[in-house]
Specification:
429 residues; alpha/beta; Purple Acid Phosphatase, chain A, domain 2; Flavocytochrome C3, Chain A, domain 2; 3 domains; two-stranded parallel sheet; 37% helix
């Protein structure tokens, strides 16, 4: 498949910024991001946009990286994401003056893209790549058409666009009606030809079926001429609305992996893990990284909970949460910083062990799993006071969907799953 441009997204940064920049330098297509910039001087780290000539049209394409706070950069990475409100105004104004058609490739969620459409009427198409959404029938917001196909290559989507000087979207209207009437005319001509092959020419005037088809053909020809003239006049005046056709094509998802591609993916995953392992080794000997001692942290580890909550701990040990870190080890991904946050206990709401993600590479063993505190909050104070008010009884949905996104867990349903992992009630004497 050939691409003109790809917008930088969260998953593209999973192996680090320098890795992506190296891949982009070797790519045969452009990586775009208007809002991924240098932290020191706000210089774009990738081209913000490009212009392609398609026939007589100048088409501008802008890339926009999702700005939801989930992308984190290392302290040594000179990078920051700025909001679209700051990144887009100058770029859109510049391209709108030079292009006939303006397209935005956006990793933002639907409501953000709708806000962009309201703010920038000069953006004509927004192609979004939101992992939590599947196929989206193109919808018009302000003057922008927002479209998306399902994630993970389960669907292909194609859109045929008839772009006009009016630079406005309209219903297919006369264009679709004209196409329908031409198809109907083709059918009538075919039926008339079959009769003409069977009947002698002198007998056709007495053939009622043939005469009915002839009358229908004359009516259609008149209507087609009228529509063609109407569309011609609209086009000449520059008022013809632009139209589109959109289709989703489901792909077979049960096909076996292509061996060469599977090998590349596995090699890349191992390389990412090895890079994390090397970073962990360096951090262990670095005086800049303080030693992670459990007694100095707000998280106590699951054994601290087990002292008073034995039945609950026994139940938890049988769940997948307890072996979350082990699954990474078995896949040789325990040093992959893109995976680790959801397989260890180091964050609860806005409480984190550290803003430096590399700290996750050196956590104490008692935090190397999805432990009690990831759902119920840090237990240091509760352990000391045994006050129920110092701990959360039921985890909020926001806690769960930090990791159980539709991209990672398509079948996750909060109301059902929260019951499935609920610990047995405490029995107080």
């Amino acid at each position: 498949m050939n691409y003109d441009a790809v917008a930088v997204g969260k998953n593209d940064l999973a192996a680090g910024l320098s890795f992506l920049q190296d891949q982009a330098a070797r790519a045969k297509f452009a990586w775009l991001s208007a809002n991924l910039v240098s932290k020191s001087d706000l210089r774009p780290l990738f081209p913000a946009s490009l212009i392609r000539q398609v026939g007589s049209l100048s088409v501008g394409v802008i890339g926009l990286t999702g700005h939801d706070g989930s992308i984190r950069f290392g302290e040594n990475e000179d990078a920051v994401l700025i909001p679209w409100q700051k990144a887009l105004p100058d770029i859109v104004a510049n391209l709108a003056a030079r292009c006939d058609l303006l397209i935005l490739l956006s990793n933002n969620v639907m409501n953000e893209n709708q806000a962009i459409a309201e703010s920038f009427p000069d953006i004509h198409i927004i192609i979004q790549s939101t992992p939590r959404s599947g196929n989206i029938v193109p919808q018009l917001k302000n003057k922008s058409l927002i479209a998306q196909t399902g994630k993970q290559g389960k669907y292909l989507g194609w859109m045929s666009i008839d772009w006009q000087k009016s630079k406005t979207w309209g219903r297919l209207g006369a264009t679709k009606e004209l196409a329908t009437k031409k198809l109907e005319l083709d059918g009538i001509n075919g039926r008339m030809s079959r009769i003409e092959r069977r009947e002698k020419k002198e007998n056709l005037p007495a053939n009622n079926s043939y005469q009915a088809l002839l009358a229908s053909r004359d009516r259609l020809l008149s209507e087609i001429i009228f529509l063609e003239n109407e569309l011609h006049d609209l086009k000449e005046s520059g008022q013809t609305p632009s139209t589109y056709e959109n289709h989703f094509i489901p792909l077979e998802v049960n096909l076996p992996d292509q061996p060469e591609v599977k090998k590349i993916v596995e090699t890349a995953k191992l390389s990412v893990n090895q890079a994390g392992r090397s970073q962990a080794d360096q951090s262990a000997t670095s005086p800049a990284l303080p030693e992670l001692q459990l007694e100095k942290l707000v998280f106590t580890g699951w054994k601290g909970c087990a002292a008073c909550h034995s039945p609950q701990t026994t139940f938890w040990e049988k769940t997948a949460h307890a072996s979350a870190y082990q699954t990474l080890s078995e896949e040789e991904q325990q040093f992959n910083l893109d995976c680790l946050p959801c397989h260890v206990t180091a964050e609860y709401k806005d409480i984190k062990i550290s803003n430096d993600a590399s700290v996750l590479l050196a956590l104490p063993v008692q935090l190397q799993q999805v432990g009690c505190e990831l759902c119920h909050g840090p237990g240091k104070k509760h352990t000391a006071t045994q006050d129920p008010a110092d701990i959360a009884r039921i985890p909020e949905i926001s806690i769960c969907i930090r990791c159980h996104t539709s991209e990672r867990d398509e079948e996750f349903t909060y109301d059902n799953d929260i019951e499935r992992i609920a610990c047995p009630a405490s029995q107080r004497q």
